[in-house]
Design a protein that fits this description.
Distance between the termini: 49 Å
Strand content: 15-25%
CATH superfamily of the largest domain: Type I PLP-dependent aspartate aminotransferase-like (Major domain)
Number of domains: 2
CATH topology of the largest domain: Aspartate Aminotransferase, domain 2
Number of strands: 11
CATH class of the largest domain: Alpha Beta
Shape: globular
Helix content: 25-40%
Largest sheet: 7 strands, mixed
CATH architecture of the largest domain: 3-Layer(aba) Sandwich
Bound molecules: pyridoxal-5'-phosphate
């Protein structure tokens, strides 16, 4: 095996404990919409055939949704696969990939496997520190991830901060705006990356059907590249037929107007619950950063500062039937579930604070 493998942390997925409430993986609490499930069933009947490797029909639907040419669009086996393809396409031995830390668990793993060096810029007040990231750019920098909102802290950078950053980054460095949680953003100061595609030729915006669209198990995400050359590079680095026919059909069905309306209602429920959970945690004495995603974050630290012992807090929640995502020594991420699930979590959190 290549020596780099010995240095890799394995990706730790959110735990599943039968009979417990799972608030560990930022999934939606509800299954696919009924009409999406029908399309999945129909598509499954063609499973003897290979899928369209370019996801053409889905990309047509996305082109219409965003008002952009199809040559700017790519689909992938989850947007995490697109992250990996982009690093493979841009960064090799001795190159550098910059991202904030703590952030999405997959970034350091993907970077190490490519042979590049990960430059992890510490968060500031639990949020991406874009000026520090711009200052970290060198002539070896090939790609920068901006996770907005950030997983696992839920914080988002402002549109002003983002454009100031993009103005500073050299135009031959690819900036990946990972917007896996974009649909949950309510703060108007947070810029939708798709609105910047005409202004910056070196960006690609990544979105996914795994979170707001509730299709995490089918593995499908997409990217909008400002420069068609970036979209081409993603297609070149794709494993052939990586996006299944069933996933393409489900994604397409999810973009139909009626489906979008129903999914928007679900997102609105999550957003309302996010404020309720945040408010209740703060009232119980916890320090909670404002989240623009479908989860909230409790940092590890002294109880007097409203922080938690992440490992002990996670174990305490599990004893009370709730699985949350623990990052030892760093914090705990709690996905927003149904109102009843959130109540169970809040009762556990209140007891653990007492
Ligand atoms: C969940 C997530 C993704 C991607 O999810 P896929 O299921 O691979 O589409 C990408 N980025 C971040 C930050 C995420 O949290």
């Amino acid at each position: 095996m290549r020596p780099v493998l010995a240095s890799l942390p394995s990706y730790v997925p959110g735990r599943t404990v039968p009979g417990s409430i799972k608030l560990a993986s930022n999934e939606t609490a509800y299954g696919p919409l009924p009409h999406v499930l029908d399309r999945i069933t129909e598509a499954a009947a063609d499973a003897n055939r290979y899928p369209d490797t370019n996801s053409s029909q889905l990309l047509q639907a996305l082109a219409a949704k965003f008002g952009i040419g199809i040559e700017h669009l790519v689909a992938g086996c989850g947007s995490v696969s697109l992250c990996q393809q982009l690093v493979q396409a841009t960064a090799g031995q001795d190159d550098e990939v910059i991202f904030g830390w703590r952030s999405f668990e997959a970034y350091p793993i993907i970077t190490a496997i490519s042979g590049a060096r990960a430059v992890q810029v510490p968060l500031r007040d639990q949020a991406y520190d874009l000026p520090a990231m711009a200052a970290a750019v060198t002539d070896r920098t090939r790609l920068i991830f901006v996770c907005n909102p950030n997983n696992p802290t839920g914080t988002a950078v402002s549109g002003v901060g983002l454009t100031e950053f993009l103005d500073e980054v050299p135009s031959d460095v690819l900036v990946v705006l990972d917007e896996a949680y974009r649909e949950f953003v309510t703060d108007e100061k947070v810029q939708d990356g798709t609105g910047l595609l005409e202004r910056y030729s070196n960006i690609i915006v990544l979105r996914t059907f795994s979170k707001a669209y509730g299709l995490a198990g089918l593995r499908i995400g997409y990217g909008l590249a400002a420069d068609p050359a970036v979209a081409l590079a993603v297609r070149q680095t794709q494993v052939p037929f990586a996006v299944t026919h069933v996933a393409q059909a489900a994604a397409q069905a999810s973009l139909e107007p009626e489906a979008e309306r129903q999914l928007a209602d679900r997102v609105a429920e999550v957003v309302a619950e996010r404020s309720r959970v945040t408010g209740a945690l703060r009232a119980a004495g916890y320090q909670v950063p404002d989240s623009e995603a479908n989860f909230v974050w409790l940092a590890d630290g002294p109880a007097e500062a409203g922080a938690v012992d992440a490992v002990a807090f996670g174990a305490g929640c599990e004893q009370r039937g709730v699985i949350v995502r623990v990052f030892a020594g760093s914090g705990v991420r709690i996905t927003i579930g149904t109102a009843a699930e959130n109540d169970t979590f809040l009762a556990a959190a209140a007891e653990l604070r007492g």
